[in-house]
## 1
Amino acid sequence: MRYILLNPGPVSISDGVRKAAVATDLCHREPEYYVLQDRIRSGLLDVYNCSPDEWTSVLLGGSGTTALEAMLSSLLPRQARLLVVENGVYGERISRIAGIHNIEFSAVQHEWTDPIDFERVEEALSAGDFTHVAAVHHETTTGRLNDMGRLAELCEQAGAGLLLDTVSSFGAENIPFGSPALIACAATANKCLHGIPGLCFVLSRKTSLETAAEPPRSLYLHLPLWVTAQDQQGTPFTPPVNSLLALDKALAELRNQGGWKARHAHYSSLAGQVRRALSRQGVKPLLEPGDSSCVLNAYCLPSGKTYAEIHDGLKQRGFIIYAGQGRLVSEMFRISTMGDISRYDMERLLAALSSVLFQDAWQPSMGDKIGQ
Ligand SMILES: *Cc1c(COP(=O)(O)O)cnc(C)c1O
């Protein structure tokens, strides 16, 4: 069975991307590879119209966490003082990375289900003499879209550079590239960009690469090593060539489909379709309306059903959903709407959910009929 993946990455990919990934054998020391690498690096800047005079993109092999750890360990100079904003698993991961690399940091902590308390962030910034702030744009733990425009403004006032985990938002949500405070963001090929796993990247202001940590905190994760080689049509290590082939095609599809704003609208429409149908069946979203990203919504487990029952029932019917993390595992489930999926796929999901939750037949409401 070919499953429809409704977990937050890797995502269901298009047939075009699947074919592109295995279309050819490519040596990474040949000119064909460098043409591909250059096209992807500039294609990533183009997703948000970042000027190549100010910004550069660095590709590296690994999952989203690789990009995150590379961004933090390379772009924070040795004397940096970092403020981390945490309201979920991924914010807490930033603090773990900072701790492992002996970066001086403190964290503004929140409950996983809470929005960022900007008053506390402002207080910490005015009291603490921080050079940098790091935060998660879309906190996939709960599906919350954190307000990065507001955080960027606070960083501008405090003169701090902002480093963002945009792993589950790059390609589908608005990122405040216009703010001079934003210096870098980390992301991956296999979430909102609809590529395959293995390739991740950091978009960085060129000036921030010039002030990178010296001496380096890591060999593989040190971004200046990668960018210097990539700027000279090289690569320091073997890149995930097939993931580049796939991302090249996925970026072309994103452009043809109208770019990130069109993708945002598509995800929002699918998420709304699911949310309305579940709400009619008494399944409540975990967060207040308007607080979730278009990428992923978390729902409270209906009483009398365990996650395992819902997950296994849906898997039998061809859909993979996602459990809550950590202490939320017994309270919620998550449905992501990223990937190459359609309203028709969602209609089939809702029919499957209805039969798993209530063992009854699913009646689409007039407003949600396909084609409307
Ligand atoms: C998926 C994700 C990551 C990275 O996860 P990997 O398993 O390393 O790819 C980091 N941050 C957020 C917000 C994510 O959703």
## 2
Amino acid sequence: MNFDAEKFKASLVERLKRQYGKDIAHANSHDLYDAVAACTREMITSNWMATRAEYEKNPVKQLYYFSAEFLMGRALSNNLINLKIKDAVKEVLNGMNIDYNLVEDQEPDAGLGNGGLGRLASCFLDSLATLDYPGHGYGIRYEYGMFEQHIEDGYQVEYPDNWLRHRDPWEIKRSDLAVTVKFGGNIAYGTTPDGQPRFYLENAEEVIATPYDMPIIGYDTNTVNTLRLWEATSPNGFDLQLFNSMDYNRAVEKQNSAENISRVLYPNDNGPSGKALRLKQQYFFSSASLQDLVHHFVANFGPDFKKFPDYHVIQLNDTHPVVAIPELMRILIDEYGIGWDEAWSIVQKTFAYTNHTILAEALEKWPIEIFQGLLPRIYQIVEEINRRFIEDLRQKYPDDYEKHNRMSIIGGGKVRMAWLAIHAAFSVNGVAALHTELLKTQELKDWSALYPEKFNNKTNGVTQRRWLLNANPALAEFITKRIGHGWEKDLTKLKGLEKFIDDEETLNELITIKQDNKQALADYLKHKQNDFLDPDSIYDVQVKRLHEYKRQFLNVLHIMYLYNRLVEDPNFDPPARTFIFGAKAASGYRRAKAIIKLINTVADRVNNDRRVRGKLRVVFVENYCVTAAEKIYPAADVSEQISTAGYEASGTSNMKFMINGALTLGTMDGANIEIFEEAGKENGFIFGLSSDQIIKMEADHSYKPSEYLARNPQLAKVVEQLVDGTYDPTHQIFKELHDSLVYGVEGQRPDVFYVLADFNSYCKAQEEIAAQYKDKKGWARKTLINIANSGKFSSDRTIEDYVRDIWKLNKLVVK
Ligand SMILES: *Cc1c(COP(=O)(O)O)cnc(C)c1O
């Protein structure tokens, strides 16, 4: 991007005048942010239009990533980085006595996602644009994103995330492309003017879907792709008749019912949503996006839909957009008069599906009454898909009725969205090698036997532009100084750092950078939540959604154990440690919330006990989000990736930590396995049961948690301390957590996630960390080896894998 400082300055002044009626001296930080963002967007507008024009002039296959979540975070810094003008803009602002950091801090996170799945979608968009692939996102413009988390008396309290309070300077509303989405009603049957039989809906609720476009700016390229997010509104506003008769509530009811569809993101990560409104959201954006694609296709190519899969491939991010499959059937059959077999063949060539979890509660299944009531015609189409499918199954497995029942898309009173996806899509992928293997051999083994050619692995990745170049500028400079540029678009180039692993000066510089980043995090948390961190201590970090399978509980139990040891044994002198947590719990997930309370309770006790001062601290970072993450990863020494083996599909924070030079403390789970493989096992800390061992124990019911308690008195002690008054005088707050380990509650087995089984092995790994950290150079050396071998975990590599095996896209360079 050619950057003209004078022109930028002039356009900034002009915008402040036009938009706010202010000059620079009177503009506040928010005005300035808005103006800087608007000027930046203006600069890329011609490239954005040129990209669109290039795709139109040169009709090629394009990828559409359908996702209910895009966890974008802030855009300003990232866009300036990708345009390679961040320093220049900083300088312009400096010259005007404006502090860039203050301006940057005005931008709210676009927090339109829960965690890893939504963040993956955002990393993918960055990589697609950077690699010049025609690939775009389709999703929902939630008015309220991920809730804002406050900690009050140690408990999580949720506040609405009103991120659109001020206008969003990045988006462009495209009212001209609005479409109508229909819900409910009854199915009617008639004939078209040319005598063709057609189904249509009568008395349906109509909702207007209006798209808002956000530019996705590639790094060091002219390509600007699009993230298109849909907003729901009512076609007739509110009912004036009712309003005039003073019935205000009912007057706005209809309007509210429509607008509620894009009101708020469901805060359930890897958990059941089960609410009709959620299905409404899913159909709303799937239908709107397909209508958009079909309109565009027909306008360009006419209604010759055989060619549709030559120009479109749709990746379904988990089961959330799977209702797009019967919706495309409906559009082709009901609106364009295409026969079933031809429509099915088009659908089969268009959709690919990504599975993100093996947790049964996260595989969406909609009760028939809800599904059919909300989407009667879509349900009818799913029934027909299933009828034909079961017929095939009967041919293939004539007497295996059990299998027919297990695999039926409609069964047990529910519509099984994952089954629908696997049956219809031409590709089914997991997100790390182990995860894909477990899908093929365990959860989806019926399906991989039926459709072996569909199954493939695509190990997740993260974009190094946001997570290294922008989040950790000192480390980025350190790298460039040694291996030159190039790694920004080809992360495997980091391998070139290996020749420095025994270079004294390099290791010293690396130590200084980490130290500075730790100081910066300490300053940030002091300012943000008045927490004190000692940058000379080990920063041991676990930041991710709060979920039992991720085992933050195991981490806290170890802290309680360490605290006991420090208090009991004055000669015990491990290096100082700061345990840092960040995690949101789904608002209805009681046990996850109790774990947050436990972390904060232990923090309160430990941080206020003089006996362990300077040795042990615990910090809970409030409101963990992308912006907080960008400050946390660069400062971490230890990356906690301690899920029960087999349960974490991939993880991506493990990758972000690795490229920022933290050492992984992890189980052999998800992408941890591949991280240890790349970095070498000796450069990380592996502990715990393997997924094979856990699968076996699950099958033969051989796990006896009580035996672990009996064998390990120190473990028994911390478990008892949950309820003996040590941390909670009422003995009640942590009783459910305690009982879930010891007895099992609500009909569950005790210790479902093998916390007690892995405790000893985890403690040993922690001791190993303490021992190794004392050797600063040795630690820095391992850090550098990790960074040098993190190339595989760029989302650029992931995107190239998808392009080669699934999407078959060609690059289209915009001049
Ligand atoms: C990367 C990221 C995640 C995913 O973390 P995992 O540890 O892989 O679950 C979640 N939230 C945010 C804000 C992230 O940046």
## 3
Amino acid sequence: MATSKTGNRDWQTETAAVHAGEFVDPATRASSPNLVMSVTFAPETLTGFSARDEQGYDGFIYGRVGSPTVAQLEAKLAALEGGEAALCYASGVAAAHALICGRLSRGDHLIVPDANYVGIAELARDTLPRYGIEVSYVDTSRPEDVERAIRPSTRMLWLETPANPTMRLCDIALLARIAHERGIRDVAVDSTYATPIATQPLSLGADFVVHSLTKYISGHGDAMGGAVIGRKQELDALNLEATVHFGGVLSPFNAWLILRGAATLPIRMRAHEEAAMEVARFLEGHPQVTRVFYPGLPSHPQHELAARQMRNFSGMMTFQTRSKGTDIASRMVKDLEIIHYAVSLGHHRSLIYWIGTDDIQASTFRHDAEQLRRYRDFAGDGVFRLSVGIENASDLIADLSRVLD
Ligand SMILES: *Cc1c(COP(=O)(O)O)cnc(C)c1O
């Protein structure tokens, strides 16, 4: 559990990315963060034994309750999101699970988007109801639908924008206001696609931000992690229950890798956006491509909202092709030279993957007929999800031409 000793709210983002949570080590004068792998810590005075005792103690006791390198990353993430505190977990899904199951109880009602990240969609659909949490699936790009879904028992509104993989956005400020006016306690935003460089959901009224650190914040495809950022009091309570009891803590080694990755997040996001814009324009003009969904293109159905809510359009897009998606995907597996045909996203190298609508429908979402029609309007018969890396855009365009021409 981290509160930053070095956090400084007046730092600009680029400075906070480098310096927040970091300090010269008093013992060695090391300038870069140490990797502290120790699981246990020898207190200077007698302390208690349980997690509850440890919460009141200022130092570290045991790795599952908190550890130094993880705390440094937590301080950096809190600074980047403009939050009071952060908690790190072993993966993005572990962070989502900790937040949802740490905050909700049997009989509580949760609203989730009707198309969002598969792991969290499946958690909501298959697992949470077994624990007595009621779930509604709503098109969160339509505030009136969210409003209609609210019940007296609704405790949490879960948002994801832009959503994986549909690239659908939702208006955080508007939905947070509606939710709070209607008595919903928690508005949580999965901001993995946007990153704090594009959007700071807490400043728009959200109570919690969730990240898969595995993606942009780590940025190099070599460490899994997740985080929840929010108010200190609520995260202290969440740490005590969800972190300590569920136990999905981040390894210090991964925290150390992600700390290093996060330092370059602002400049990487600029490079992602610049390359993505060029690639998106190329795709939009390509005869094989029927549709491109990129928030930075005026053709995105929610471009106006994107321009208002995102300071950076990020590197994520989807597109559809005239030829059968699976045929093009087979060519990609064989013929792409730079872009890796692989899942995940937000890495420095470009990644692409075919996501068939039927597969998604069968495995992930629970839609009524009207929702299915709207999902098909957005995702057609499947999309290529392209995560544009920080390579030179002309090399990426040449690579895509190889499989599309
Ligand atoms: C990948 C992803 C997650 C899950 O993160 P993991 O680190 O893979 O557990 C959650 N939300 C979004 C939007 C993602 O892209």
